[in-house]
């Protein structure tokens, strides 16, 4: 088996470690007011669990219907992912950026954008080998466009 471009459990552990170290440093330097968003830990945990459950439910539906749409339109699933799915995941960030910038908090806007990219590059790619199996990175994926 060719091991070139293979991302497995070892790389996944390394990437998750980098993500957790980054999150730890963010929490250490956060403003105390930001850490007290909810009045009780129980409320925070319930909101978190509800959010995760809704995300799992609607994410699977979004992927399922995106694949159906790509097939029906005869478009590459890669294009659907690049345009529709990525737009859907970025809309909350766009709204957050507009609101925070209009309130004079451009630093929140910048932090949100940078945090999103770093989370996707570290935590998401780090978890992939654990959720499925090792996968190959196709460096010429944009050649298909």
Automatic annotation (TrEMBL):
GO terms for biological process, alphabetical: transmembrane transport
Q: Which UniProt keywords apply?
A: Membrane, Transmembrane, Transmembrane helix
Any one of the GO CC terms: membrane
Is Hydrolase among this UniProt entry's keywords?
no
State the name under which the record lists this protein.
Sodium/calcium exchanger membrane region domain-containing protein
Any Pfam family from its record, for instance, is: Na_Ca_ex
The UniProt entry lists membrane topology as:
Multi-pass membrane protein
Q: Provide the primary localization.
A: membrane
> Which segments cross the bilayer?
6-26, 38-60, 66-87
Sodium/calcium exchanger membrane region domain residues are 44-133
Q: Which Gene3D superfamilies match?
A: NCX, central ion-binding region (1.20.1420.30)
Compartments reported by the entry: Membrane
């Amino acid at each position: 088996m060719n091991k070139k471009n293979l991302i497995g459990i070892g790389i996944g552990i390394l990437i998750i470690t980098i993500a957790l170290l980054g999150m730890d440093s963010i929490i250490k330097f956060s403003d105390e007011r930001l850490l007290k968003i909810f009045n009780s830990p129980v409320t925070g945990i319930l909101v978190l669990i509800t959010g995760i459950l809704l995300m799992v439910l609607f994410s699977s539906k979004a992927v399922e219907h995106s694949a159906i749409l790509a097939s029906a339109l005869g478009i590459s699933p890669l294009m659907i992912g690049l345009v529709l799915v990525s737009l859907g995941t970025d809309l909350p960030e766009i709204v957050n950026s507009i609101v925070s910038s209009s309130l004079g908090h451009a630093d929140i806007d910048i932090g949100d954008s940078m945090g999103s990219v770093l989370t996707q590059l570290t935590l998401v790619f780090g978890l992939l080998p654990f959720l499925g199996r090792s996968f190959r990175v196709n460096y010429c994926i944009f050649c298909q466009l």
